[in-house]
Design goal:
With 336 residues, the chain is an alpha/beta fold. It contains 13 helices and 15 strands. The protein folds into 2 domains: 66 residues, Urease, subunit C, domain 1, CATH 2.30.40.10; 258 residues, Metal-dependent hydrolases (TIM Barrel, Alpha-Beta Barrel), CATH 3.20.20.140.
Length: 336
């Protein structure tokens, strides 16, 4: 058996102690010093959940292009640069790029990611091919090939993915969004949407779509956030991605309103898909959230947002954890 010791993140905060593990399973836990020399000492955290990715555009990062720091020009469908590049890329290029990101996520302690996959059913199939040889769980949110609702297409997408994840309401004819959301809810799958990223969008319209969660909300006002909180809808923040375009989430306001938060790394063409790097970035920008809160967003909260089983590090649970340095938060040991 091997041991790690330090402080273990639980649902009730950090608790001093150790974990003993063997063959991918936690065998024993304790609140005192570990019985044998630990393989790593530090903050012991359940594996991360990256709650918002687009790993389909990983191949673009490999091209080392200069990308426009403008959301509309770069990522808005159908004519943003990213979508043109996605259409022209070969399947091999797309899959190789996705596998590079998957490998990166596993090495940085992520055991689950929620991908907003473009390109309809073809996009889902490519992601599933990329996933086939890796030990990582995914929540795949797909989207229609074009910006309109077709019943047969949504049926196919929902049969092959965990739900639908769309770009913002500003890109769409609202009545099409209503039809999609209704269809997804009827099938009891996840429906999520980017919101108030480039500009403030009408919160009533967004909430009427009954989203399971929203991504960004950086241009939202206090009253928008209050309404989101009252509707019990979580927000996934992607601070490094916002920073690329010259913005940041309003951490102070988010904390004040107390909306439920999780973290995502967004487009893989912009940033590596490491949730730990996302946390380190936020810590550099603000001290509004404690390290414990940020780690909570990326572990317990994110699982709640995606309706996943809560992963508590206890006897008999899977040995899926990461040990990080308590000062720098750099990974010291990854068990996945
Ligand atoms: Zn996104």
């Amino acid at each position: 058996m091997e041991f790690v010791s330090g402080k273990v993140l639980t649902k009730n905060g950090f608790q001093k102690g150790y974990l003993g593990f063997e063959k991918r399973k936690i065998i024993e836990t304790g609140k005192e010093k570990s019985p044998e020399k630990p393989v790593a000492k530090g903050l012991i955290v359940p594996s991360f959940v990256n709650a918002h990715t687009h790993i389909g555009d990983s191949f673009i990062k490999k091209r080392k292009m200069k990308l426009p720091r403008d959301i509309e020009k770069l990522v808005a469908p159908p004519n943003g640069l990213k979508h043109n590049l996605l259409r022209k890329a070969t399947e091999k290029e797309l899959i190789d790029g996705m596998e590079t990101s998957i490998d990166y996520m596993i090495k940085s302690g992520t055991s689950v990611f929620c991908d907003f996959r473009e390109d309809g059913i073809v996009g889902i199939c490519l992601l599933k091919t990329a996933l086939s040889s890796w030990n990582i769980s995914s929540v795949i949110l797909s989207r229609p090939d074009e910006l309109n609702y077709r019943k047969s297409e949504i049926d196919i997408l929902l049969n092959n993915s965990d739900g639908i994840g769309l770009s913002s309401i500003s890109d769409w004819d609202y009545s099409e969004l209503q039809k999609i959301s209704k269809h997804v809810k009827k099938k009891k799958k996840l429906f999520a949407i980017h919101a108030s990223e480039r500009l403030r969008e009408n919160i009533e319209d967004i909430l009427d779509l009954k989203p399971d969660f929203l991504v960004h909300m950086i241009k939202a006002t206090e009253s928008d956030l209050e309404q989101v909180k009252d509707s019990e809808i979580p927000i996934v923040l992607c601070p490094r991605s916002n920073n690329f375009y010259g913005f940041l989430p309003n951490f102070k306001l988010l904390k004040k309103v107390g909306v439920e938060l999780a973290l995502g790394s967004d487009n893989a063409m912009l940033n590596n898909p490491s949730i730990l790097d996302e946390i380190i970035f936020v810590r550099k920008k603000t001290n509004i959230f404690s390290t414990e809160e940020l780690l909570n967003f990326a572990t317990f909260n994110a699982r709640k947002v995606l309706n996943l089983e809560c992963h508590i590090l206890g006897s008999n649970s899977k040995a899926e954890f990461i040990v990080i340095d308590k000062k720098t938060l750099k990974p010291l040991y990854v068990s996945l």
